[in-house]
Amino acid sequence: MKTIHLFEESIYLISNHSVARNPMFSSLSMQNFFKLKMEKYLLPISEIIAYNFIDNEFQILVKLKKRDDFRSHYLSNQKNTILDEEIPESTYIFSQAMANLQVSFVKHFNFTHKRSGTLVASRFGRKLIENEIEMNELVEKLNKGLEQAHYSGIWVNEIMKEKRAMTSNWMYSHIFKGETAKLQGYLNARSSNLGDCFKILPPYRLPSTNNFFFHQIFKIFRQKAHP
Prior knowledge:
Elements: E1 11-17, H1 28-42, E2 46-54, E3 57-64, H2 67-76, H3 90-113, E4 125-128, H4 132-143, E5 166-167, H5 212-225
Antiparallel strand pairs: 1-3, 1-4, 2-3, 2-5
Helix pairs in contact: 1-3
């Protein structure tokens, strides 16, 4: 079943690609910019296990943090005092973080290349990782810089004649082995015990009666009751 929503303390592969096969990562500077924005928007609410930025796509393997982390992060961005009932589910908070990440990158890319319009697909991909074998295989794949999407036919892009992947391989080198605490928010899957993430897997989606729209309606009624 397709993953729709995201749940705390579970592991997911987050990915997206450009539209019309545009080269998102046309240079090392673009990859570095994306990495900085990834750290800014995702590290407060998740730990990054592995990543791969190459050509026209990105893949990020993350372990979501606890609900308290999502709650604190959401409240830190609010100007006005709100009730706990008004704080949306973690999946919506994460989706907003991804939106901020992608929008900031697209603006920078368009400005740099003097272009306008859409660059990445509107909805990012999400996949629940269900066991350690799958997780470890993904870590290896991402660190090798392997692409997720494979296109048929001939495609030669003048900007990206030579594909150079930026990966999390540095996290798994002998220099950092066993030193997870020094990775400042990153999480080395080989030196961390992540077995508990797979003991009880979350559902693929939220029940239809438990969603952000309910909270938004509640907020409107509260504002009308206390103008």
